[in-house]
Write a structure and sequence with these properties.
heterodimer; A: 3 helices; B: mainly alpha; 10 helices; 2% strand
């Protein structure tokens, strides 16, 4: 094998890859797309971090809280504080799993 | 010389942030330098396989992706162990930074495997031991990422993720030995301690593509660990000193990023 000599005689043979071009090219293409998507995702995360830094919001503050709305983080869940944009909490003892067993 | 100070020198996030920042670009250039000759050998220079024809060229992306998905999980398990035993924050951050890249490679290994399987086996998917354990690895990665996301990236995610990282590592020997322990459709290892059952040029191309995947993994995980540190340490003075004078000394990734568009949040 000469490393500088292509195995194919013309470009269409290169694209067809025998009968396997329809499998080989998508394999390489999807790999390139996945890695590009990963890089783009990181750039997007950096831009988001930059925007939060400029806005003076802690990056780990959930977006709802940054917008002045109550957090739905694990710490916030289960608290008895009413969420203004959701249904009002039922009176004590009438919530899910509390009292009034069938 | 004691190993401990060397081992823990980069444990403080500030030092890890600086170290990671120095290595992103060199690793990217290294990845490109390996990828180009690797692609040349994979697609242009090497002849067709006597049995599988040109379809065997999928090997040059499938095998590195499959190897990387396993090795990255092993490294995650290593950092998880270090983080659990010595409670070093940097170890957990490194594990978190590696997980998305490992998940991408696990997915690629399955997709490219299906693209290879269809012309060679006549099926996109079979419930073969190697394929099933590889699918389980992808689910482990997705579980790890879901756990991290459920904690919104906070330090409270570190211990549960580390436990999952360690437990999930039990799947790695299952993947590796699946072709020996069970009668599988998937072929056995072509590269063993006693040598490789493939031509030298094919092996060179495969090793170049694998080295490129390693360099890429280093680059993206170093970049991601910087972002994770900047998220978690946003309140610290050292990070403010990096970000504060953005026009003159933009050393953090967030400071270098272009401002987000209105809908970017």
């Amino acid at each position: 094998m000469n490393a500088l000599t292509p195995w194919f005689t013309d470009f269409s043979a290169f694209l067809q890859m025998g009968k396997h071009g329809v499998y080989v090219w998508p394999a390489f293409g999807v790999s390139a797309l996945a890695l590009a998507w990963e890089w783009w995702g990181q750039a997007r995360q950096a831009r988001r971090l930059r925007a939060l830094t400029v806005a003076g919001v802690s990056p780990l503050t959930p977006l709802r809280q940054a917008q002045g709305r109550p957090s739905l983080s694990p710490e916030g869940r289960g608290s008895n504080t009413a969420l203004p944009d959701l249904l009002p909490l039922p009176p004590a003892g009438e919530g899910r799993g509390e009292g009034k067993a069938p | 010389m004691s190993l401990e100070p060397t081992l823990f020198h980069f444990a403080p996030p500030k030092r890890l942030h600086a170290l990671a920042g120095r290595w992103v670009r060199p690793c990217l250039w290294l990845a490109l330098a390996m990828l180009l000759p690797g692609l040349w050998l994979a697609l242009v220079a090497t002849p067709a396989d006597a049995v599988q024809g040109e379809g065997y060229r999928i090997l040059y992306v499938h095998v590195p992706a499959a190897w990387m998905s396993m090795w990255i999980y092993a490294v995650i398990a290593f950092w998880s162990f270090i983080g659990l035993v010595w409670r070093t924050r940097a170890s957990h951050l490194m594990a978190h930074a590696l997980a998305p890249t490992g998940a991408v490679f696990a997915l690629l290994s399955l997709v490219t495997g299906a693209l290879w399987g269809k012309p060679m086996w006549g099926a996109w998917w079979v419930w073969d031991a190697r394929l099933t354990t590889s699918l389980l690895l992808l689910f482990l990665y997705l579980g790890y990422l879901a756990l991290l996301r459920a904690h919104e990236g906070r330090a409270s995610a570190d211990r549960p993720c580390a436990v999952l990282g360690l437990l999930g590592a039990l799947n790695l020997p299952l993947i590796y030995f699946s072709v020996h322990w069970w009668n599988t459709l998937h072929q056995g290892a072509s590269i063993t301690a006693s040598g490789a059952t493939m031509p030298g040029a094919t092996l060179a191309g495969l090793l170049l593509m694998t080295a490129a995947a390693w360099a890429w993994t280093f680059a993206v995980s170093f970049k991601r660990v910087q972002l994770l540190i900047e998220e978690r340490e946003a309140h610290t003075r050292w990070l403010h000193s990096l970000q504060g004078d953005t026009p003159n000394a933009p050393h953090s990734i967030a400071a270098r990023a272009q401002p987000a568009s209105a809908g970017g949040l």
